[in-house]
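Today's session is about reading a structure prediction critically. Students often jump straight to the picture, but the first step is always the sequence itself: look for stretches that repeat, for charged clusters, for runs of hydrophobic residues. Only then move on to the predicted structure, which in these notes is written as discrete structure tokens rather than atom positions. Here is the chain we will use throughout the hour.
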Amino acid sequence: MSALGGGGPKSVATLNRRLVLEAPQDVPDGAGGYTRLWSVVGTHWARVEPHSGRQANGEAGAISSAGFTVTVRGAPVGHSSRPVAGQRFRMASRVFAIEAVTEVEPRAMYLDCRCTEEVSA
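Below is the predicted structure for this chain, in token form.
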């Protein structure tokens, strides 16, 4: 057993969700703008914990926004498999935008990714 964050002892077995890590790529659209595409960077086994949510008004109507902590195995800073803010995790049709990444403990064996999932209501 190892400690993962402030939630008390957790086992590696709690990394039970397979998530795809995606990075944004802006591609010129030929009209002076760009189109944002997402490319797969890798996959991670993760623990996904929900937090508080809220409802807001978006351009096309109401948007439900929920916060999550996604815990994954650590990777060295700069390594292509280490998540960074601005990337996203995909789990089937669900998308979790990564807002911040922190090391869980000094040895950085695990990373906590603060994420937001937005769903049109």
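Discussion point for the tutorial: The first strand starts at residue 2 and ends at 3.
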